[in-house]
Amino acid sequence: MIRKFEEKDKEQVMEIWLISNLQCHDFIPARYWRSNFTEVSRVMNLATVYVFEEQEKIAGFIGVMEDFVLGLFVKENSRGKGIGTALLNYMKSRHGSLSLAAYEKNSRAVRFYMKQGFKVQSERVDESTGERELLLAWTAAER
Q1: pLDDT at residue number 44
Q2: What CA–CA distance (Å, rounded) separates 116 from 113?
């Protein structure tokens, strides 16, 4: 079930955020993610966040500000089961276009977004990590 994020979800969501970043971005030092934990937790309250809940546990979440996807994360044991696709489709149904940034080295995520209809718009280097990012965009009219 997809539902709007509630404050009571924050601990589970932030745990998913940290563990997923450590697993999926092993090319970035772990201290980077740990040092940003507090700031991301604060920004969580400013974003539009939806969670995917199964059996009263959060399996994944998506956060958006305006039309920019800040993050889409799914617990490791729930990946590959359509949860990320469901969350992204839920957000697509509420937006005419979406954009996001994905690290080029996170090839699994890049493939996922391309499969979901996102197209590379440009590339840049993330100044805080020194890693190349792809800026991807999806528009409803291009489905």
Answers
A1: 87
A2: 5
